[in-house]
Amino acid sequence: MSRHPIDLRLGGRLRELRERRGLSIATACRRLGVDRGQFRRYEAAEDRICPATLLDLSRILKVDVLDFFEAASCDGVPPSGRDAADGT
User: Which of 7, 65, 78, 80 could form a disulfide with 45 if both were Cys (CB 3.0 to 4.6 A apart)?
Assistant: First the structure.
């Protein structure tokens, strides 16, 4: 299964924000209530992060949910989910 660019971006930002906060994977897992393998799959974008989990992660990392999308530059992902060709 091919990973969508936004999933790759979210996983990368999760790792970046976690490391910036000095939070270990073990601590993040315990706070989120998932095992190490699941957390690594989130960071590697092997599993999609659902909106509720993203909200939980933002609280654990003490960041705004939008921080996961900061400076997002995902080829093929038009701003606001709009189709660039037809402007909708």
Answer: 7
